Amino acid sequence: MDTGTDFRTQALREDIRTVDAVIFTHSHTDHIMGFDDLRRYSHARGSMPVYASVETMRDLERVFEFAFKGVYTVPGYLKPEPHVIDGSFELGETLITPLPVPHGDSIVNGYLFSRGGEKLVAYMSDCSSVPDAIVDLIACVKVLIIDALRDKPHPTHLSVEQALEVAARVRPDATYFTHIAHELPQAAESRLPAGAHIAYDGLKLAFR
């Protein structure tokens, strides 16, 4: 999900040897600037499937023109395989449903991941509100991963209070805050209600 500026560091730390596809939420710098670090995974499988909205794909093709237009044909270079998202799609046994949400003045994609009709994860890393239609779509998901920048309100991100309000409407089994700022330390989890957590690098979730 996305290729942030430290994608290479994360991949090395977690010993990620294969990447089957990449799904982008939006094209802000902190979400795409590790894109070229996909080249070793692309080379290993022959190409790299890239999924994004039409707006995000357009930005990716502009910023990384060398890759999308095949300007360099040197073996080992990144070869993206673009897929524009215009509705739900499947990767393996997982159904992925886009969740368009406001991010300030922009609309970006969150995603709902389901298997066998069971809603496993709703992921909304960047949002300033969550429309009722999205809440209804992801209601009672097992895990909600949601933007919660800090306690103080922000024009393009949810605050902790706002994120908890969304969680109360969604009613997930567990909630994890992501896209947190330095103003929200890990220790803040001690004051969160039961079932709400602050995500951290290297966090892994298992589903039965």
What brief labels describe this structure?
Metallo-beta-lactamase, Chain A; 2 domains; globular; 208 residues
Write down the CATH topology of the largest domain: Metallo-beta-lactamase, Chain A
Major sheet details: 7 strands, mixed
Helix content bin: 10-25%
CATH architecture of the largest domain: 4-Layer Sandwich
Break the fold down into its secondary structure elements and pairings.
Layout: H1 7-13, E1 22-23, H2 29-32, H3 39-45, E2 48-52, H4 54-63, H5 65-68, E3 80-84, E4 89-91, E5 94-103, E6 106-115, E7 118-124, H6 132-138, E8 143-147, H7 160-170, E9 174-178, E10 196-198
Parallel strand pairs: 1-2, 2-3, 7-8, 8-9, 9-10
Antiparallel strand pairs: 4-5, 5-6, 6-7
Q: In a nutshell, what does this entry contain?
A:
With 208 residues, the chain is of the alpha/beta class. The protein has two domains: 1-86, no CATH class; 87-199, Metallo-beta-lactamase, Chain A (4-Layer Sandwich).
Structure write-up:
With 208 residues, the protein is α/β, with parallel strands linked by helices. The protein has two domains: 1-86, no CATH class; 87-199, Metallo-beta-lactamase, Chain A, CATH 3.60.15.10. It contains seven helices and ten strands. β7 (118-124), α6 and β8 (143-147) form a beta-alpha-beta unit.
